[in-house]
Recover the amino acids of this structure.
Protein backbone atom coordinates (compact mmCIF):
# COMPACT_ATOMS: atom_id res chain seq x y z
CA UNK A 1 0.00 0.00 0.00
CA UNK A 2 2.77 2.46 0.77
CA UNK A 3 3.79 3.05 -2.87
CA UNK A 4 0.10 3.58 -3.72
CA UNK A 5 -0.64 5.94 -0.83
CA UNK A 6 2.58 7.98 -0.56
CA UNK A 7 2.11 11.65 -1.43
CA UNK A 8 4.65 12.79 -3.97
CA UNK A 9 6.80 15.93 -3.74
CA UNK A 10 6.47 16.48 0.01
CA UNK A 11 9.38 17.47 2.25
CA UNK A 12 7.98 15.09 4.90
CA UNK A 13 6.67 11.67 3.96
CA UNK A 14 2.87 11.62 4.09
CA UNK A 15 -0.15 9.65 2.87
CA UNK A 16 -2.46 11.04 0.22
CA UNK A 17 -5.99 10.67 1.54
CA UNK A 18 -7.43 10.51 -1.97
CA UNK A 19 -5.17 7.61 -2.94
CA UNK A 20 -6.02 5.82 0.29
CA UNK A 21 -9.75 6.31 -0.14
CA UNK A 22 -9.71 4.99 -3.72
CA UNK A 23 -7.95 1.76 -2.78
CA UNK A 24 -10.09 -1.37 -3.17
CA UNK A 25 -10.56 -3.41 0.00
CA UNK A 26 -11.30 -7.17 -0.04
CA UNK A 27 -14.46 -7.67 2.04
CA UNK A 28 -15.17 -11.15 3.40
CA UNK A 29 -18.45 -11.66 5.29
CA UNK A 30 -18.42 -10.03 8.73
CA UNK A 31 -18.28 -13.37 10.61
CA UNK A 32 -15.20 -14.28 8.56
CA UNK A 33 -13.64 -10.87 9.25
CA UNK A 34 -14.08 -11.54 12.97
CA UNK A 35 -12.57 -15.00 12.57
CA UNK A 36 -9.57 -13.55 10.73
CA UNK A 37 -9.07 -10.87 13.41
CA UNK A 38 -9.32 -13.42 16.24
CA UNK A 39 -6.86 -15.75 14.49
CA UNK A 40 -4.36 -12.95 13.89
CA UNK A 41 -4.72 -11.61 17.44
CA UNK A 42 -3.80 -15.04 18.77
CA UNK A 43 -1.01 -15.85 16.33
CA UNK A 44 0.68 -12.44 16.31
CA UNK A 45 0.59 -12.38 20.11
CA UNK A 46 2.38 -15.73 20.15
CA UNK A 47 4.98 -14.58 17.60
CA UNK A 48 5.49 -11.26 19.40
CA UNK A 49 6.13 -13.17 22.63
CA UNK A 50 8.80 -15.28 20.93
CA UNK A 51 10.39 -12.13 19.47
CA UNK A 52 10.50 -10.46 22.89
CA UNK A 53 12.28 -13.49 24.35
CA UNK A 54 14.90 -13.32 21.60
CA UNK A 55 15.29 -9.57 22.11
CA UNK A 56 15.86 -10.11 25.84
CA UNK A 57 18.53 -12.67 25.00
CA UNK A 58 20.20 -10.13 22.70
CA UNK A 59 20.26 -7.57 25.53
CA UNK A 60 21.86 -10.14 27.86
CA UNK A 61 24.49 -11.02 25.25
CA UNK A 62 25.25 -7.33 24.67
CA UNK A 63 25.60 -6.79 28.43
CA UNK A 64 27.90 -9.80 28.68
CA UNK A 65 30.02 -8.45 25.81
CA UNK A 66 30.30 -5.00 27.39
CA UNK A 67 31.20 -6.45 30.80
CA UNK A 68 33.83 -8.72 29.24
CA UNK A 69 35.55 -5.79 27.52
CA UNK A 70 35.27 -3.46 30.52
CA UNK A 71 36.83 -6.01 32.88
CA UNK A 72 39.69 -6.85 30.52
CA UNK A 73 40.73 -3.23 29.87
CA UNK A 74 40.47 -2.13 33.51
CA UNK A 75 41.43 -5.25 35.51
CA UNK A 76 43.48 -7.29 33.05
CA UNK A 77 43.38 -11.00 32.31
CA UNK A 78 45.12 -12.29 35.45
CA UNK A 79 42.59 -12.75 38.29
CA UNK A 80 45.48 -13.17 40.77
CA UNK A 81 47.19 -9.88 39.88
CA UNK A 82 47.94 -7.56 42.78
CA UNK A 83 45.75 -4.46 42.59
CA UNK A 84 46.22 -0.79 43.51
CA UNK A 85 43.91 2.25 43.59
CA UNK A 86 43.90 4.03 40.24
CA UNK A 87 43.09 7.39 41.81
CA UNK A 88 40.13 7.69 39.44
CA UNK A 89 36.71 7.27 41.04
CA UNK A 90 34.94 5.55 38.14
CA UNK A 91 37.92 3.34 37.33
CA UNK A 92 38.56 1.93 40.82
CA UNK A 93 41.44 -0.51 41.34
CA UNK A 94 43.79 -1.53 38.54
CA UNK A 95 46.65 -4.06 38.44
CA UNK A 96 49.57 -2.77 40.50
CA UNK A 97 52.04 -2.91 37.60
CA UNK A 98 49.87 -0.78 35.30
CA UNK A 99 50.41 2.95 34.78
CA UNK A 100 47.86 5.71 34.30
CA UNK A 101 48.33 8.69 32.03
CA UNK A 102 46.17 11.19 30.16
CA UNK A 103 44.97 10.29 26.68
CA UNK A 104 46.42 13.52 25.25
CA UNK A 105 49.94 12.50 26.23
CA UNK A 106 49.61 9.13 24.48
CA UNK A 107 47.85 10.11 21.27
CA UNK A 108 47.65 12.85 18.70
CA UNK A 109 44.59 13.47 16.61
CA UNK A 110 43.29 14.98 13.41
CA UNK A 111 39.85 15.71 12.04
CA UNK A 112 38.60 15.51 8.49
CA UNK A 113 36.48 17.36 6.00
CA UNK A 114 34.03 17.08 3.15
CA UNK A 115 35.01 17.80 -0.47
CA UNK A 116 32.59 20.01 -2.38
CA UNK A 117 29.59 17.75 -3.03
CA UNK A 118 28.74 19.61 -6.25
CA UNK A 119 32.08 18.75 -7.83
CA UNK A 120 31.78 15.24 -9.24
CA UNK A 121 35.54 15.09 -9.80
CA UNK A 122 35.90 14.75 -6.02
CA UNK A 123 33.60 11.77 -5.53
CA UNK A 124 33.28 8.06 -6.34
CA UNK A 125 37.01 7.50 -6.26
CA UNK A 126 39.15 4.82 -4.62
CA UNK A 127 39.57 6.41 -1.17
CA UNK A 128 37.01 5.33 1.45
CA UNK A 129 35.48 8.40 3.16
CA UNK A 130 34.31 7.60 6.69
CA UNK A 131 31.38 9.47 8.20
CA UNK A 132 29.29 8.56 11.29
CA UNK A 133 26.91 6.47 9.18
CA UNK A 134 29.78 4.05 8.44
CA UNK A 135 30.61 3.47 12.10
CA UNK A 136 28.48 0.39 12.61
CA UNK A 137 31.35 -2.11 12.70
CA UNK A 138 34.49 -2.34 14.81
CA UNK A 139 36.72 -2.69 11.74
CA UNK A 140 36.30 -0.33 8.77
CA UNK A 141 37.31 -1.57 5.34
CA UNK A 142 34.57 -0.06 3.15
CA UNK A 143 32.32 2.99 3.27
CA UNK A 144 29.12 4.20 1.64
CA UNK A 145 30.94 7.11 0.00
CA UNK A 146 34.42 7.42 -1.46
CA UNK A 147 36.49 10.30 -2.75
CA UNK A 148 39.18 10.81 -5.37
CA UNK A 149 42.80 11.89 -4.94
CA UNK A 150 41.73 15.34 -6.16
CA UNK A 151 38.92 15.47 -3.59
CA UNK A 152 41.41 14.57 -0.88
CA UNK A 153 43.92 17.18 -2.04
CA UNK A 154 41.42 20.02 -2.37
CA UNK A 155 39.54 19.53 0.91
CA UNK A 156 40.19 19.50 4.65
CA UNK A 157 40.20 15.71 4.63
CA UNK A 158 43.47 13.77 4.78
CA UNK A 159 44.57 10.19 4.29
CA UNK A 160 44.55 8.19 7.52
CA UNK A 161 46.91 5.24 7.71
CA UNK A 162 45.46 1.84 8.54
CA UNK A 163 45.26 0.65 12.16
CA UNK A 164 44.16 4.06 13.47
CA UNK A 165 41.40 4.58 16.05
CA UNK A 166 38.42 6.40 14.49
CA UNK A 167 35.83 8.03 16.71
CA UNK A 168 32.62 9.97 16.10
CA UNK A 169 32.81 13.39 17.78
CA UNK A 170 29.65 15.04 16.46
CA UNK A 171 26.37 13.18 15.97
CA UNK A 172 23.02 12.62 17.64
CA UNK A 173 24.12 9.05 18.41
CA UNK A 174 26.41 10.46 21.10
CA UNK A 175 23.34 10.81 23.30
CA UNK A 176 23.74 7.14 24.17
CA UNK A 177 26.94 5.67 22.70
CA UNK A 178 30.40 6.53 21.37
CA UNK A 179 30.95 4.90 17.96
CA UNK A 180 34.60 3.83 17.73
CA UNK A 181 36.39 1.64 15.20
CA UNK A 182 39.75 0.84 13.62
CA UNK A 183 40.37 1.20 9.90
CA UNK A 184 42.01 -1.81 8.26
CA UNK A 185 42.71 0.12 5.04
CA UNK A 186 43.81 3.74 4.50
CA UNK A 187 40.78 6.04 4.67
CA UNK A 188 39.73 9.66 4.79
CA UNK A 189 37.21 11.03 7.32
CA UNK A 190 34.67 13.81 7.46
CA UNK A 191 34.49 16.71 9.91
CA UNK A 192 32.28 14.81 12.39
CA UNK A 193 35.08 12.30 13.02
CA UNK A 194 38.46 12.23 14.74
CA UNK A 195 41.39 9.96 14.04
CA UNK A 196 43.43 9.07 17.14
CA UNK A 197 47.03 8.06 16.44
CA UNK A 198 48.60 6.25 19.38
CA UNK A 199 52.16 6.78 20.61
CA UNK A 200 54.66 4.14 21.73
CA UNK A 201 53.12 3.28 25.12
CA UNK A 202 49.61 2.52 23.82
CA UNK A 203 48.42 0.25 21.00
CA UNK A 204 45.51 1.15 18.74
CA UNK A 205 43.67 -2.08 19.55
CA UNK A 206 43.90 -1.51 23.29
CA UNK A 207 42.72 2.12 23.01
CA UNK A 208 39.83 0.99 20.80
CA UNK A 209 38.73 -1.61 23.34
CA UNK A 210 39.16 0.82 26.23
CA UNK A 211 36.85 3.43 24.66
CA UNK A 212 34.43 0.71 23.60
CA UNK A 213 34.38 -1.00 26.99
CA UNK A 214 33.98 1.94 29.37
CA UNK A 215 32.02 4.38 27.21
CA UNK A 216 29.18 4.57 29.75
CA UNK A 217 31.70 6.27 32.03
CA UNK A 218 33.42 8.26 29.29
CA UNK A 219 30.35 9.72 27.59
CA UNK A 220 29.28 11.96 30.53
CA UNK A 221 32.91 13.11 30.91
CA UNK A 222 33.46 13.87 27.22
CA UNK A 223 30.14 15.35 26.13
CA UNK A 224 30.20 19.04 25.22
CA UNK A 225 27.43 21.02 26.93
CA UNK A 226 25.04 23.47 25.30
CA UNK A 227 25.35 22.24 21.72
CA UNK A 228 22.41 21.79 19.37
CA UNK A 229 24.01 18.55 18.13
CA UNK A 230 25.63 16.12 20.55
CA UNK A 231 29.40 16.38 20.39
CA UNK A 232 32.60 15.43 22.22
CA UNK A 233 34.86 18.08 23.70
CA UNK A 234 38.44 17.42 22.62
CA UNK A 235 39.84 18.88 25.84
CA UNK A 236 37.69 16.65 28.03
CA UNK A 237 38.70 13.58 26.04
CA UNK A 238 42.38 14.46 26.10
CA UNK A 239 42.42 15.00 29.86
CA UNK A 240 40.87 11.61 30.62
CA UNK A 241 43.24 9.23 32.40
CA UNK A 242 43.90 5.95 30.63
CA UNK A 243 45.03 2.77 32.43
CA UNK A 244 48.16 1.60 30.61
CA UNK A 245 49.36 -2.02 30.89
CA UNK A 246 52.72 -3.01 29.37
CA UNK A 247 52.47 -3.15 25.58
CA UNK A 248 52.82 -6.96 25.57
CA UNK A 249 49.83 -7.18 27.91
CA UNK A 250 47.82 -4.73 25.81
CA UNK A 251 48.35 -7.01 22.82
CA UNK A 252 47.29 -10.08 24.84
CA UNK A 253 44.16 -8.28 26.03
CA UNK A 254 43.26 -7.26 22.46
CA UNK A 255 43.82 -10.79 21.12
CA UNK A 256 41.69 -12.26 23.91
CA UNK A 257 38.88 -9.78 23.26
CA UNK A 258 39.07 -10.33 19.50
CA UNK A 259 38.42 -14.04 20.09
CA UNK A 260 35.76 -13.73 22.77
CA UNK A 261 33.77 -10.88 21.22
CA UNK A 262 33.77 -12.70 17.89
CA UNK A 263 31.99 -15.62 19.59
CA UNK A 264 29.39 -13.34 21.15
CA UNK A 265 28.94 -11.38 17.91
CA UNK A 266 28.24 -14.68 16.13
CA UNK A 267 25.49 -15.47 18.63
CA UNK A 268 24.07 -11.96 18.30
CA UNK A 269 23.96 -12.26 14.53
CA UNK A 270 22.12 -15.59 14.75
CA UNK A 271 19.55 -14.13 17.13
CA UNK A 272 19.01 -11.12 14.87
CA UNK A 273 18.48 -13.43 11.91
CA UNK A 274 15.94 -15.48 13.86
CA UNK A 275 14.07 -12.30 14.82
CA UNK A 276 14.03 -11.10 11.21
CA UNK A 277 12.63 -14.43 10.05
CA UNK A 278 9.94 -14.27 12.73
CA UNK A 279 8.98 -10.75 11.65
CA UNK A 280 8.84 -11.84 8.02
CA UNK A 281 6.65 -14.81 8.98
CA UNK A 282 4.38 -12.50 11.00
CA UNK A 283 3.93 -10.15 8.02
CA UNK A 284 3.36 -13.05 5.61
CA UNK A 285 0.80 -14.61 7.94
CA UNK A 286 -1.17 -11.37 8.23
CA UNK A 287 -1.05 -10.82 4.48
CA UNK A 288 -2.21 -14.37 3.75
CA UNK A 289 -5.08 -14.15 6.25
CA UNK A 290 -6.48 -10.78 5.14
CA UNK A 291 -6.28 -11.63 1.43
CA UNK A 292 -7.90 -15.03 1.74
CA UNK A 293 -4.80 -17.06 0.91
CA UNK A 294 -5.44 -19.17 4.01
CA UNK A 295 -8.80 -20.16 5.45
CA UNK A 296 -8.88 -19.45 9.20
CA UNK A 297 -12.59 -19.97 9.82
CA UNK A 298 -12.09 -23.38 11.39
CA UNK A 299 -9.12 -22.30 13.54
CA UNK A 300 -10.98 -20.00 15.92
Amino acid sequence: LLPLWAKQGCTVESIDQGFMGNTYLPLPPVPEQKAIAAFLDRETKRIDGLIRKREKLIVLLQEKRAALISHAVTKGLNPSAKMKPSGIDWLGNIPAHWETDKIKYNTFSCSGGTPNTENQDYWNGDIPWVSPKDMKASRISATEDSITELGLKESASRLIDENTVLIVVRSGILKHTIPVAINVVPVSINQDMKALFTKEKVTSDYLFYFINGVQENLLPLWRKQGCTVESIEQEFMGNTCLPIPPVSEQKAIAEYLDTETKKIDGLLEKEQQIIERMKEYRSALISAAVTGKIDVRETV
